[in-house]
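tool_log.txt
---
The assistant was asked to compare two proteins side by side. It first ran the structure predictor on the initial sequence, then on the second. Raw inputs and outputs are pasted verbatim so the downstream comparison step can read them without reformatting.
(1)
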Amino acid sequence: MATNKANNPLFKSFKSNGTQYHTFDSKFHNWDGPAIIHEDGTSEYYVYGMKVSKQEWIDKKNGIESIDE
């Protein structure tokens, strides 16, 4: 999963109205932390555009797939 964000044009980070956004290939995504960080400090995790909980993000980052019961 190691990537060089600085040299990859598919990665973009920007701030709008106090909220920080991280995208990959025009989808919310960030393996370094939350993809959206709101001005009030709350955050949202996304994996290739799909919103996930922080624990799901950690599991996916570590290569662990969730099993639906």
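(2)
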Amino acid sequence: MAYTRKFSETKIWIPHGEEGTRRTLLEMHRLAREATSLPSIQFLAQTLSTPQGVENYIRQNWRLVPDPPDAEYILAPELQIELAIETGVFSGDCDDAATLAAAILAALNWPASIIAIRMPGASEFSHVFLRAYTDEGFVDIDPIVPYEHLPIRNHAQELVIHV
């Protein structure tokens, strides 16, 4: 399976299975951390200021665009911002949304984790989202899943990378 940042020349080949998922999550973490000092990410962080603010904003401004069936792409947060300026919305799939949210919360030094889930009976991890930790519990940031289905609890296994 090919794995690359959209609109860049960087390609990383990842294995199938849990090791491939772990490497994807680590790449998402790297992209999010690299973006924390960008003025556009800093602006969003200061404007949105809380995990619930990030969840609400991304959910209201997100358009689901799946990756092709034979590739896994992650759009870097700085490219997300550029495209949102051009199109008026953020777009991509679950890993793109989680990476953008991770960058915004990392800019706030807010504790969060990128979480991949494998549904009961499935052999592969099939979804990823960001979980932010608050004094009251946690906030799942996931514009792909309808709000009434959050938090996602019906999964057999989580693979977690702390942001």
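---
observation on (2): The two ends are 25 Å apart (CA to CA). Confidence is low (pLDDT under 50) at residues 1-9.
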